[in-house]
Amino acid sequence: MEVLFCISSLVAILSTVMVITRLNPVHALLYLVVSFMSVAMIFLSLGAPFMAVLEVIVYAGAIIVLFIFVTMMLNLGKETAEQERNWLKPRVWVGPSLLAAVLLAEMIILLTKGQPGSMQVTVVDPKKVALSLYGEYIIALELVGFLMIAGIVGAAHIGKHRKKTFHRFLEDEAETEQQLKADYHDVHTG
Amino acid sequence: MMSIQVSAVLIVAAILFVLGFIGVLTRKNILFMLISVEIMLNAAGLAFVAASAKWQQADGQVMFLFILAMAAAEVSVGLALVLQIYHQYKTLDIEKLNALKDE
């Protein structure tokens, strides 16, 4: 099982590296699916089967589908990949990556310095999670409901596409109508 | 009964978080930045589940559920913003979206 954990975390790290280096958004999203799947495998090997299922359903299902919808609507194609290639010059990414790598090295040193603790993996079953969720965390759960409503309303409001132009058949008609209205106004106000 | 080093799981979570962080810092496309934020949230959730497995309590998994809900709400609003930005500016380059920049 230790081996299972090692393999899935290796896959997760590799696929995440691929996600942040791809030029085409769709390729990045496909690698992101692999990354989420392997994180779900890690959850399974940590004894959290319900979280693994939710990871696959919500992350790899819903969130990726949203991203793919938007990528398709934006119609990002070859020129976007070309643009990304121009943006991803080494002098752009070397500095931030090195600084972040220093932080990572510090964190790894800190994590390995402490007394080595190994954990016995036992499955925390969904029943325990549900009892805790609807017991002591009930307020937080209701707040999450508020958050979801806010997300839905916000997305619907922000994403509303106000149509500024008329259909090409209606465009002339609208213009003449406006002209007529202006003339009428002029005549009647002197 | 199997046993996994606690620090190994936390190191994997830290590596994933830093990868997402590098993505946010280096990419100039808003879509890729949103993807990287998702990776970072996922890494944080991994740390919570690891803590839940360490002490065999359900609290960490409950926190992961909350992170999941927050990520879903965040990504829906963020993608709506991306669509609106693309309609208005015809680009996703963050260097071009500098209307709030102090001259």
From TrEMBL, chain B:
It is found in: Cell membrane; Membrane. GO terms for cellular component: NADH dehydrogenase complex; plasma membrane. It comes from the Bacteria. Its EC number is 7.1.1.-. The chain crosses the membrane at residues 6-25, 30-51, 63-86. Its main location: membrane. One of its GO terms (biological process) is ATP synthesis coupled electron transport. Keywords: Cell membrane, Membrane, NAD, Quinone, Translocase, Transmembrane, Transmembrane helix, Transport. It catalyses: a quinone + NADH + 5 H(+)(in) = a quinol + NAD(+) + 4 H(+)(out). Pfam families: Oxidored_q2. NDH-1 is composed of 14 different subunits. Subunits NuoA, H, J, K, L, M, N constitute the membrane sector of the complex. NDH-1 shuttles electrons from NADH, via FMN and iron-sulfur (Fe-S) centers, to quinones in the respiratory chain. The immediate electron acceptor for the enzyme in this species is believed to be ubiquinone. Couples the redox reaction to proton translocation (for every two electrons transferred, four hydrogen ions are translocated across the cytoplasmic membrane), and thus conserves the redox energy in a proton gradient. NDH-1 shuttles electrons from NADH, via FMN and iron-sulfur (Fe-S) centers, to quinones in the respiratory chain. The immediate electron acceptor for the enzyme in this species is believed to be a menaquinone. Couples the redox reaction to proton translocation (for every two electrons transferred, four hydrogen ions are translocated across the cytoplasmic membrane), and thus conserves the redox energy in a proton gradient. This is NADH-quinone oxidoreductase subunit K. The gene is nuoK.
